[in-house]
Amino acid sequence: AMLQDEDTEADFQRFLRRVDDVTRLLQGLSSTDSAAQEKAVAEAEEKLQDEGRGTVNRTVINTQVRGLSSAIRADFGGGFLAVLEKDAKERAERRRRNEQMANALKEQGNDAFRRGDYSLAIQRYSEGLQQLRDKQELFTNRAQAYLKIQEYEKAIGDCEWALKCNRKCIKAHFLMGKAHLALGHFTESRQCYEKILQIDPQKENLVQDCVSELRLEEKRVKDEEEAAKAVEAGAAAALAIQELLPRIAAPGHDLLHCTGGIRMLAGLVKDCTEQTLFRTNNGFSILRDNEAVARAVCAERRSPAEVELCVSLLLLWQAVCAGNEENRRLLLSELAVSAQLPELLSSGIPEIQKETLALISLYSENESGRKLLVRHQDLGRWLQILMAFVKCTDARAGSAMNILSDLIAEERFKAQCRVLPPGVLPLFTQLLASGRQVNQAALACAIGIVGSLCAEPGTREQLAGSRECWQGCLELLDEGLDGSTPRYQECVFAALGLMMNLLLESNGIIQDLAVAISGRCLALLSHQDGRIVTRAIGVLSRVLPASPSAVEAAVKGGVVRKMVKFLKAGGQLTARYGINTLCICTRSCRQAQEDLLKADKRFAVLLELLECQDELTVGNAALCLSQCLGLPGAATSLLPSDVVQVLLRHAGGDAARTAVQRNAAIALGRLCVAEPRHIHQLRKLNGLAILSSSMKYVQSS
Predict the structure, then answer these.
(1) Which CATH number applies to 506-600?
(2) Which class does domain 89-199 fall in?
């Protein structure tokens, strides 16, 4: 924590003086001049006696002091100096270690600063200062981060501490001048810049730029104060808006003047009355009429002043469009605005991107606003721009994904993204492969959005045909096999859903990767998140038909036993995926049939599934049973059960899915062939007629 009050500052100065005194005494004690040694010993005794005059037991202290001189003289030739030297070395080593840690934390802070994560940067610099309190660079770097988040008083405090470490630190004077300027302390700001010239006259150009900015800010503040005084004098908000708009729109004003006016307007617009006044006074023509504003908004590279103007303009647009459908419509009807929104999103300047996303959110969060957006924008390009924000570690990523989630419901958006634009697929595969480095909550959302787009056959085919996309999904699943955070688990869950959608396609890449995909899913069956387990079973049920090798590998991996375990646990969706997986494995694999007979004694699980309400599960349970009845003893084990009655009911039933009647009839026929004693029960139930009528389903298949 920084020292702020006068008492703490006085304590610090006293401490520094005592350090100087001790240093001087040590130099005297180690001197080769005997007179200097005697003088230092006497002074040391005197200081110790002074310390003993406090509230502590004086007798004990004085007893120790009386023998100090002789003890120092007796031991001075060896032990005392050795202790001093050892202490000095230990402190030097401590400082070296602390400096290494401080430097490492400084670099971490610098990385966070470059990414725009100023809060993390401040935290790292503060941790560095805990290791080394007199490291000037940490104070100035933290001051610069404080400036970014508008904590100007804290920035000034850090600059003051940097100057205690190094009185000639130009960066400290420069940043302190900036902070004072932001606070409106123009005199103090000017003094800081003058100090820079006193230290280094070669910095004249830097100082001139700073002073010019200072003068412009003074002028801006003066203009704002004049306008504020007019409002305070009784001018209504309507009058202020009517006066400010022509002044801002008029050509010839500098950027600072325009920024100040725009900020004032944003502050004045608080409800629909001011919003209407803004519109009726042609407020949306600012970008069209003022060349300075247009240049700042459209510039490829922006100065700090132009960045500030853009941010102010975006805040104004937010104020006039919030809850006002007509204003939203008029803003997007301005061609310059409509054209610049994607450019502002792509600017790479966090402040501009943040406010642009906030403005777009006003449109995306309601149906009428979404209609306006999809009507005026190249949505394929927007998909790529917004998805790139997943790389951001701050709130921009979440804002961008919220907008995409809103837009994905619009038919026009889906239509424009039926074929992904060229840059989207490489970006998406890169995000999949970088799951640990990006914003994981946003990545999970992005995967879900792409999965929704796969409802379009063209998009699904495009993604399913990308080997890089599949490899990215597999890499993401690999990371999820180890202990992962809840946010990363959401990414795994979303990736499995995407893979299920893509597996509706069939191609050579899926066949090539089927073994790898099924292997990852088998590993995920032991995951603690039941949702992930269910989706992993779903992926298995869709990927295994693509490759006999994948079926063979899955059976060797114990997939049958695991499916029986999950089927016993229940759950409609899990049951649907699990029984489908068993059907695929037992269709052509004798080992799978034998494994099922061992794991499901007397087919108790399959018989229970035949009684459920889900037709898809019932049909697959009947099919799976029929595929296992060729095993020795399988049909015989069912004699004590009511399997004939159950199968007859399904074979002669009126299920909407004819596969239920067909598979039940096939199972019943194979049951009677494998174990003729079942025929008696069939005749008793008049099942031959029912079975005969069901043959039409078998023949049609």
Answers:
(1) 1.25.10.10
(2) mainly alpha
- Output Rg (C-alpha) for the chain, integer angstroms: 39
The per-residue pLDDT for range 203-251, each reduced to its tens digit, is 889 999 999 888 888 888 877 776 665 445 334 556 666 666 666 655 5
Shortest CA distance to 257 belongs to which of 206, 222, 295, 304?
222
Convert the pLDDT of each residue in 564-575 to its tens digit. Answer: 999 998 788 999
Q: Could you read off the pLDDT of 415-458 as tens digits, one per residue?
A: 888 888 888 999 999 999 888 888 999 999 999 999 999 988 99
Q: What is the mean pLDDT of the chain?
A: 84
DSSP string, 38-89: HHHHHHHHHHHHHHTTSSS-HHHHHHHHHTHHHHHHHHTTTHHHHHHHHHHH
Cα angle, residue 503 at apex, residues 578 and 431 outer, rounded to 5°: 110
How many angstroms separate the CA atoms of 624 and 457, rounded?
Answer: 31
583-609: average pLDDT: 93
**Which residue type sits at 180?**
H
Identify the CA nearest to 411 among candidates 435, 447, 437, 375.
Answer: 375
SS3 state of residue 643: helix
Mean pLDDT value of segment 134-146? 92
pLDDT value of residue 451:
92
SS3 454: coil
Residues 6 or more apart in contact with residue 574 via CB below 8 angstroms: 533, 534, 537, 566, 567
Closest CA to 354 of 316, 320, 398, 420: 398
Say which residues have a Cβ less than 8 Å from residue 374's Cβ, sequence separation at least 6. Answer: 407, 410, 412, 413, 416
The predicted model scores a pTM of 0.62
Long-range contacts of 36-41 (CB under 8 A, 24+ apart): 37/76, 41/68, 41/69, 41/72, 41/73
The SS3 of residue 483 is coil
On the question of pLDDT at 675 being above 90, the answer is yes
d(CA 201, CA 188): 20
Q: Which of 610, 583, 608 shows the shortest CA–CA distance to 664? A: 610
pLDDT at 76: 45
**CA–CA distance, 314 with 535 (Å, rounded to integer):** 43
